[in-house]
């Protein structure tokens, strides 16, 4: 899915991702997004910058080290704190 929730409100977005997680359970699914709150449900996050893979890991692993993901997370999170 590529930015599947760009045009819906946060409550509907939550419902979409919960349903998606149930449907995808036991399968491989790929989500392409810049909205990092959406990727927290992923088992593995792959960070691509200018067509290059620059990092990979879980949400917690990526926040635990310096890098593009942590920078983007902190930039988005400031609007929710």
Brief synopsis:
With 81 residues, the chain is of the alpha+beta class. 37% of the residues lie in helices and 14% in strands.
Oligomer: single chain
Shape: globular
Count of all domains: 1
Main sheet characteristics: 2 strands, antiparallel
The secondary-structure element order is HEEHH
Biggest sheet, strands in spatial order? 1-2
CA-atom Rg in angstroms: 13 Å
* Count of extended strands: 2
Instruction: Show unreliable segments.
Output: none
Structure write-up:
By secondary structure, the protein is an alpha+beta fold. It contains 3 helices and 2 strands, in the order αββαα. A two-stranded antiparallel ribbon has the order 1-2. Strand 1 (45-49) and strand 2 (52-57) form a beta hairpin. The longest helix is centred in the N-terminal third of the chain and has 15 residues, at 10-24. The radius of gyration is 13 Å and the shape is globular. The protein starts with 9 loop residues before the first helix and ends with a helix.
